[in-house]
Amino acid sequence: MHTPTVLISGASIAGPAVAYWLNAHGWRTTIVERFDELRDDGQNIDVRGAGREVSRRMGIEDDIRAATTGEKGTEFVDATGRPLARFAAGTSDSGGATAELEVLRGQLSRIIVDRTRGETEYVLGDQIVALEDGENHVTVRFAHGAARTFDLVIIAEGLRSRTRALLFPDKDAVHELDFYTAYSTIPRTPADTDLWRWHSAARGRSVTLRPDNLGTIRATLSFLSEVRGLQELDRDSLTTVLRHTFADVGWAAPRILDALDDDAPLYFDAVGQTRMPSWSSGRVALVGDAAYCSSPISGMSTSLALTGAYVLAGELSAHPHTTAFRRYETLMRPYVDQAQKLPPGTPRVANPRSRAGLATMNTVLRIAGTPTAARLGGLASRWFTPPADAINLPTYPLPRPAH
To answer: What sign results for the dihedral spanned by CA atoms 375, 379, 381, 382?
Structure first.
């Protein structure tokens, strides 16, 4: 009896997750990753709603809990660091700006990868350069390794997936949000707390500090801009842009900029969403950010990745690929549409351009952060709780226990 084979491109979260479930359904899986090693770095992400339920079904919820960053809530501060409003971490599967399960992206990836050891073949330091989609298999050509054939190929890359562009060369998949974020990791000081602290400045800029479980601080500098292509600049040019953009911003901005001059890690991203009319073509399918990135602003990308991986693998276990791909999209599309509907005015409302807008936002935050508002479950609850539960997860029988 033929054991179906699949090549998965991308070893972050969606890729290893779909490999985990396909392994459990008796498939033979291979993951190709263009980086030479699996990365343990990355910023804070949260596991919510359906994604958290998938983590339970994978048996990794306790592992995630053990690796949480220890973030206890969210605090908005002014230019001197004085608190404006504070919101406690969520205590349910979905609620809160700080979710109950906050973890570093690389650590969540490692947890899932460890569950695929011994079953999934990992090919590091290589990438797909061509796909020939045949009637019975896909022939894949790599940048370095020899060509190979697989029954199916799954693209589990990021927002700006190179391989997706091979599959859909005429599709402009990225919907830009006119928002940039610089991510870094800086030394922790005695003045730092276990809160996600957020300072919004005028002219569409914001600064955040978040705790991790490694004794350092994850920092961001974000700003609105309609200029395209800044993410293509080299490090020195990016640092110059950031110094110019945040020159007059207080609180932690000078500290972060100084750390960048001292060679602190820097990852710079143009924030956007993936919007595709279809998530498959022939024997090739998309999953996770390559298919439906909802952006870090949504708080949903990780849950979409875990949920999409579960549904795609489950449908492939039950149906021929043509039917499975269609059912996968039918089940996931409403969930994705909900996740990509950002709160009104996002990201501009949290990054006001004018001082008047900033004053209004700070006033609203002060009101929303009062005990009375918290008891009424008003603005803050609605604003900070994404639609993470907006799907009824199917149950797919496993031929053998997943492990």
So the answer is: positive
**Total residues belonging to the chain:** 403
Q: CA nearest 99: which of 298, 252, 308?
A: 298
Domain 5-70+103-173+273-340 matching CATH 3.50.50.60: the answer reads yes
Please calculate the CA angle 220-221-224 and round it to the nearest 5 degrees: 130
- Cα 294 to the center of its chain, rounded Å: 8
Cα–Cα distance, 299 to 100 (Å, whole number): 13
* The model's pTM: 0.91
CB atoms within 10 A of CB 80: 8
Helix H or strand E segment including 84: strand 83-88
- Alpha carbons 210 and 69: distance in angstroms, whole number: 9
The DSSP code for 218 is E
CA atoms in the 13 A half-sphere facing the CB of 367: 8
Mean pLDDT, each 10-residue run in order, the chain (403 residues)? 94 97 97 90 86 95 94 92 87 64 93 96 97 94 97 97 88 91 96 95 94 96 94 95 96 96 93 95 97 91 96 97 98 94 74 73 69 52 64 86 57
Cα–Cα distances (Å) from 2 to 29, 101, 133, in that order, read: 14, 40, 19
Q: Which CATH class is domain 175-271?
A: alpha beta
Which residue spans within 147-259 are E strands per DSSP? Answer: 148-150, 152-155, 174-187, 196-201, 205-211, 216-224
SS3 159: coil
**What pLDDT was estimated at residue 376?**
42
Where in the sequence of the chain do the CATH 3.50.50.60 domains occur? 5-70+103-173+273-340
* pLDDT of res. 345: 66
C-alpha 72/C-alpha 105 separation (Å) is 18
Q: How far apart are alpha carbons 381 and 374 in whole angstroms?
A: 8
